[in-house]
Amino acid sequence: MGSPAFLSEVVITDSNKWIDFELDAGEQNASIATGTYDDMRAVAAAHQAAIQALGGAAASVTISIGSDGTTTINLGGTGKLLWKTGTHGSDNTDTHCGDLYGFSDAADDTGAASLDSDNQHQHGFYANMGVKIDTKDRADSPGPATEITMDGTCERFSWSRNSDKNRIREVELQFITPAKFFEAEAGTNESLEKWWRDDASKGTYFQYYSDSSDFDNNDEGKYALIVDNDPNLLDGINRESPGEEYYQKVVFRMRRQGS
Question: 244 and 167, same structural domain?
Fold first, then answer.
């Protein structure tokens, strides 16, 4: 079994919704609706549909997210992705989506039918080893702890919630190297630190894929990370040993959202 991926919700705005490209008819432009998407795979599917709807050579363009989080845009023929010089490129309105997908906008991408991103896409963490422990979804308390009052009676405050949401899960990863753990040592967008700080610790929902090499058959559903107030990423996480900079007991404690 492959390694898991945790892909956060993505907010598309007027400042990151455009793809500019060239195929056989000069510059063409495609955009998607603004709003919140389940993850970057959903964003890619929406952009692919928008491009294909233009017809002609664009009808065969595909966008895919790889098991390591990099993006491949296949133009079906030699063309250009205009991240820099396009109408919405960095030289102009700078409202393109290249950064989201991991493409640099320092230059246009050209020279091949299939063009790969420079980096992993944003808003996701891809573990480079498998899962050590996975409790699967299990029942959780619908309210806070029971209180014993001064007169000896027991009281509990609770509230009604959809039982499908009242499920928790713990996933412990295998060892993580510094190059996947710390932003300063990782490739662009790749670190656990960045994903945890920017998305997970803020309560952003994410799709959990137990095996990123087969997204479609390993979509475990939508979760939110359970975190304390003022959390610290390294709380409870230790090195394997003083001489080995591998981090162990990295546990994602998360609550399922919806059915």
Answer: yes
